[in-house]
Each structure stands twice: as C-alpha cells, then as structure tokens.
Design goal:
There is one protein chain. By secondary structure, the chain is mostly helical. The protein contains seven helices and no strands. It is globular, with a radius of gyration of 17 Å.
Length: 209
C-alpha cells in the first residue's frame, strides 16, 4: 500500500474520494463543484477536514442521510496494548476498515522504530477489507504486502512477539487468506469477522467455505 504525501496510506485514506462515485468533477457547474467540494471538506470534532459521508461496516460510502457505522476518531494516541485490544475487537466485529484506522494512528503517533510494523498491520486490515468487499486482486495484494512489512520489521529488529502479537501467525494467516481470496474471486467475498486474524494468538484459519 503506497503512502500519500501526508503519510496516510493511499489505499485507504484516499478512499474518501476514490470509492465515492460522486467525486467526478468534469461535468459539474462551478456552483455544484463548490458545494461538492465543501461537502467533501466536512470537519471532525477537532476541526480537521474529514469526509462526513456515512459509511457501512466495511468503510464503503453510503448516501448522505443514510444510517452508517461511526468511524474511529482520527489521531487518537493509544498505548500499544490499547491499540491491539481495540483493533482486535473491531476485527472480531467484522470491521477491518475501522481496525486499520486504529493501526494507522499507532503508525503515525508511535516510535519511528515501530513504524513499519504498524504500517504492515494497517495493510493487513485493509487487505481484509478489500477481500470482504469482493476486491480479490487488491485484497490479496495488500495482504501479501502487509505480511511482507511485518516480516521485514521482525527481520530487522529480531522481535518476534511485539506487544504480545504473534507475527509468525499473522504472516501465515495473511498468506493463506490471500490464496483463498484469489481462489474464490470477486464473486465470493470472504466474511470479515469469520476470517479475522488473532493478533495475539494463533491466527484463525481462513477455511474453504
């Protein structure tokens, strides 16, 4: 998963626009463009620009006015234990998109020595998100990319269980799930909760259902 100039993973934070079918500007009048742009520049509770369009449990944008699933607050500084616990709860609930946002906060606020680790975990969560949305190609690619980042971090640091996490199990989970996703294709997306990893224990087997 590539990064934007702001440090956000392009595969995810830019989904505010890429996944939104209403962001094509070419055919809009100036008034429509200005109104659309203002809508896209909604602010969060701290005044930061953030698209307030409602989203479903997998982070897909819904029409304005629809009842969506609240996103995670952005920019929260958590302890590593809090990050792992909150991300696991979200993964278990079938909300890997939201878990990715928790990992991204750790990536951006944590020590530089752990940046690759948290980035890799965020990529794994985004990979599961795409797999559950039916994007088999993108999901498999990001699962493997995230697993590669985790392996890279372990190889460089020699730390195999950072903050109690089972990195070997996560890498195996990502590899197996990527293969499953590719074998099923876009027509049979995986269930995000059923295939959620166990961050601190043996990763759940993807299965073949």
């Amino acid at each position: 998963m590539s990064s934007t100039s702001s440090g956000r993973p392009a595969d995810e934070r830019n989904e505010d626009h890429r996944d939104d079918p209403g962001t094509g500007r070419e055919g809009l009048s100036r008034t429509d463009r200005d109104r659309d742009r203002d809508r896209d520049r909604d602010r969060d509770h701290e005044g930061r620009a953030r698209n307030a369009r409602p989203r479903d449990g997998l982070g897909r944008p819904l029409p304005y006015g629809a009842e969506g699933v609240p996103r995670q607050p952005e920019g929260v500084v958590r302890t590593p234990d809090e990050t792992v616990a909150e991300a696991q709860a979200l993964l278990d609930a079938g909300r890997p998109f939201h878990a990715h946002e928790v990992f991204e906060d750790a990536w951006k606020s944590g020590p530089g020595s752990e940046r690759i680790l948290w980035r890799g975990l965020a990529q794994l969560a985004v990979g599961l998100t795409h797999a559950a949305r039916g994007n088999a190609t993108g999901g498999a690619r990001l699962l493997r990319r995230g697993a590669g980042a985790v392996r890279e971090w372990v190889a460089e640091t020699g730390v195999r269980r950072p903050h109690g996490m089972d990195t070997a199990g996560l890498v195996a989970w990502a590899r197996d799930l990527a293969e499953l996703v590719e074998s099923r294709g876009a027509a049979r997306p995986v269930d995000a909760a059923e295939h959620a990893p166990r961050l601190r224990g043996e990763a759940a087997a993807p299965g073949s259902a």
